[in-house]
Amino acid sequence: MTLTPEQQSEIDAQRASGTTTLRATAPGMEQHLYTAIPVLDHGFIRVIDYMGDDAAITQAARVSYGKGTKAVSNDEGLIRYLMRHWHSTPFEMCEIKLHVKLPVFVARQWIRHRTANVNEYSARYSILDREFYIPAPEHLAAQSVVNNQGRGEALSGEEADRVLRYLRDDAMRAYDHYEEMISDVGQQGLARELARMNLPANIYTQWYWKVDLHNLLHFLRLRADAHAQYEIRVYAEALCEVVRDWVPFAYKAFEDYRMGGATLSSGALECVRRMLKGEEVTQENSGMSKGEWREFMGVIEG
Amino acid sequence: MTLTPEQQSEIDAQRASGTTTLRATAPGMEQHLYTAIPVLDHGFIRVIDYMGDDAAITQAARVSYGKGTKAVSNDEGLIRYLMRHWHSTPFEMCEIKLHVKLPVFVARQWIRHRTANVNEYSARYSILDREFYIPAPEHLAAQSVVNNQGRGEALSGEEADRVLRYLRDDAMRAYDHYEEMISDVGQQGLARELARMNLPANIYTQWYWKVDLHNLLHFLRLRADAHAQYEIRVYAEALCEVVRDWVPFAYKAFEDYRMGGATLSSGALECVRRMLKGEEVTQENSGMSKGEWREFMGVIEG
Amino acid sequence: MTLTPEQQSEIDAQRASGTTTLRATAPGMEQHLYTAIPVLDHGFIRVIDYMGDDAAITQAARVSYGKGTKAVSNDEGLIRYLMRHWHSTPFEMCEIKLHVKLPVFVARQWIRHRTANVNEYSARYSILDREFYIPAPEHLAAQSVVNNQGRGEALSGEEADRVLRYLRDDAMRAYDHYEEMISDVGQQGLARELARMNLPANIYTQWYWKVDLHNLLHFLRLRADAHAQYEIRVYAEALCEVVRDWVPFAYKAFEDYRMGGATLSSGALECVRRMLKGEEVTQENSGMSKGEWREFMGVIEG
Amino acid sequence: MTLTPEQQSEIDAQRASGTTTLRATAPGMEQHLYTAIPVLDHGFIRVIDYMGDDAAITQAARVSYGKGTKAVSNDEGLIRYLMRHWHSTPFEMCEIKLHVKLPVFVARQWIRHRTANVNEYSARYSILDREFYIPAPEHLAAQSVVNNQGRGEALSGEEADRVLRYLRDDAMRAYDHYEEMISDVGQQGLARELARMNLPANIYTQWYWKVDLHNLLHFLRLRADAHAQYEIRVYAEALCEVVRDWVPFAYKAFEDYRMGGATLSSGALECVRRMLKGEEVTQENSGMSKGEWREFMGVIEG
Prior knowledge:
4 copies of one chain form a homotetramer. The first copy, chain A, has a 5-stranded antiparallel beta sheet with strand order 2-3-4-8-5. A two-stranded antiparallel ribbon of chain A has the order 6-7. In chain A, a hairpin with a 7-residue loop joins strand 6 and strand 7 (151-154). Chain A starts with a helix and ends with a helix. The first copy, chain A, has 3 domains: 5-133 and 202-259, Gyrase A, domain 2; 136-200; 266-301. Chain A contains 13 helices and 9 strands. The mean pLDDT of chain A is 94. Chain A has helices at residues 5-15, 27-32, 54-62, 72-84, 104-110, 157-182, 192-195, 213-223, 230-246, 248-259, 266-276, 283-286, 290-301; strands at 19-21, 36-39, 43-51, 95-103, 117-120, 141-143, 151-154, 204-212, 262-264. Chains in contact: A-B, A-C, A-D, B-C, B-D, C-D. At the B-C interface, helix 5, strand 6, strand 7, helix 6 and helix 7 of B face helix 5, strand 6, strand 7, helix 6 and helix 7 of C. Chains A, B, C, D: It holds the Pfam family Thy1.
């Protein structure tokens, strides 16, 4: 992560200036505010603002005049009930705003989640910084041989060296030419909106991203999953820690019912019932395809 | 407006309990928090939470590390520029959460604005209160004779009396029967989810409604407009005052460029240009239909 | 259901006028087009238009130049894979447009599904018809004694008679007064936008509703569920038949993985694993609450 | 534009296979279906499907049982009224599905329009083609000296040559390395999801994009505007022609009230009124900033 001294001092200034509010306040989030949580080699996540806490979820579910219940245990029970029964609207009553610095190819995956608000740094208007994501050696993975959309072991030896050299050299050369093309010293200077097209997808961009808790949890379910690409998963994992500190009851329910849970098809449920009656169920007599059966075994065997 | 002593004391308790926060705080909104602003005969708007202030808009537009600019004048200039050029995403970075009590027929118009989060009081689960909107005599308006979707003068005399009597008596009788049908004293008691169907559309409901500033301003442009139905317009007008206290620069820009502005068609602009050159332009030589010309005259003559 | 002869002849005219198109066409849907499928006592669903078929789902998933695969079995396999792994965007590539006539209290539940397009008949502009939903005796249910949000046995005897009488008489009286208030014979006539407030929630309204297949399936999962209120469930069930005729592969996958499937929490999965190893698991040693355990037993026992 | 013979023959096959439908059919769109409309050097737009026509807009606005009105003139008048008064929901009742091939930096602007459905070619799963956008000499523009977010004159001479050489050579080298890195000949082969990060933003991607007419017109208003970047504007302009052929009344109203119209602020309207009374209004006595006044003059002088 690279923060300039000016950026760090702006962050420090914001962390120094508390005021009094009557709004719901989450102590765990006050600790996070503004501070940059490092992700990848130059990226970060910063919590810029938040709205609501665990009690705000139950308060909305009850359309109540005051806070949530007096008894904290009731709040937790209700939150678990809401999560278990897919009542999503009370979770939409909490909101978070982040400042994220991330490689462009990660940003392109991230933006597919449409129910969020985004303001991205404009490369039409401004000049991008010379910062590129270069994978650490242990994350320089080979194409998976079993999954077209996955990765296998880390590359090694000379192949790894060559890949890293290509990534670094091509990025540096592309940026050198970017700078040279937009320069107005002794020439007209290419428009920024055109020059940016020379930059590769591992360059870093940044944006403000604002989302409600329901949609954030949906994002985390997909992107903190083991099948997500490593480079977005580390952002999702860092966010999981933030959410845990923000709304601990909701996060615990999310872990139990979403991240740690699994959806079984009608066929898979029927197999479980047969197994519990002592019947020997195999892929052949399960009615499932090989792919489904393998996934089912993964769930059943833990 | 009807708040029970318990409700009022819950509100008082929330207004008494300030804590320290590092988040952006809008002093004008802290004054509003939790307090019920009366609307119509039994309705209200209460601000439950908010995120951001004027500086948060420019901060997001710049994707900056610190607050908005030091110079307040710069923030205002940028906000006006963003509003004028329809840059909507920075305004989406502020959020507000309201508790609203409103008649069902108003709720049905309100909910058409889909880009918002809603939790409504459940009449499947709970029992509705005996509270109905009965128009004040000056708002008991006749059907407009020029506009199929509008209203004219207030009714008067015996007709007004009869209408008010119908509205009151039918509401009371419907509620008496609702109570009688759901009662489980000496009978099974009809399911609440069915009994509610007997209640007329002027009964009050309530909900938590959360929306970002961009979509709220869009709502206000349509619903605080002179052509909106009076009963939703008063909610929109009350909300306008809240927004003015929350983000004064953004609200001023909204007044200038949206509420007080007008969109002219290519044909209307051509007429303005001809008029400014001294030409006499009439409906006949304007190329506009009578309806368009009447609207155009309304804009040009102010 | 009540269609006037004029309405029926408009429908007949539309069914008589085929044209040639190069677009994807679903034979099962051509059969449904325009025809009113009756729901409840006066309601209906009519398919007005549709876009796409099963092949359009795989075509979009592959971003292909031509149709889906030649081999139909491949299309089905891919659709099942997409459904199983929650790849929602290919299902968004099909769209349906419906004309629905439904009681207002059902419309109020329905509209909570926000990711859809709606045009509702305007009671500000037009006069509503004298049509009210009156439950059939077998659906006149008592409040559930175990579930605050459900219903139990049907009412019987004198109680049922009285409830039906209240519902019918109150509706008729409210409508009589509605008509009398808006009449301009010998009086000014109350504005329609006000008079409608006297009408109860079992009056029928109608709308055009357009939605993509992914969001439609989400709607059906929640509203064709056994816990949904009967009066919206019958609409969902009628729609299920339509979808089955439209995209048979997608509907079959939906039945297997959504409607007939179940999501198990991490704790529930752990219990299944212990059971399969022969351990006796009870609510007490399961780590689940009584409510969760009851739901878990319902899933495991089928 | 580069279509392989296989792609072209798939397109030809689809254009050859008409079937009968009872749905609304737009003759102008049947002409466009599947055919690739070239945009930029390798890009295109293909209409894959559409729902509705001009009559479908008025049919939804009226919630009618049959088609739109018999008199075409009534349909057009109503469509113009709806457009003029910002009634957006009837326009949402038409839908279009496109296959678009476009450079990544254009795709990144395009995707900001969130109310649409997208399936993009996956560079995690598949290998991208060696196709890059290289601007034609007349579009190789210098940075604007008056507008931070715009472009000025075309580059010339040796500077132009150098820029084109950089763009071409860097793209080719990046792609050579991309191919070399993912190759599994004699090495493990880098994962595709990683190798793609080496590719610059002028590489072409493709997606299926589906949107309703209201949101499409909003997209066109912003992206067919003179201030939009040239490389996205040409896509928007090609789409304008498609929409004109699809819904001619709606497109004409869009041209008159949106593309050719202008929104004047309350201050600007006041200036127009003063001018029409013969007063001499200047920037100094207008109450407008210099920027606003310049824009206002642009509107008034045409």
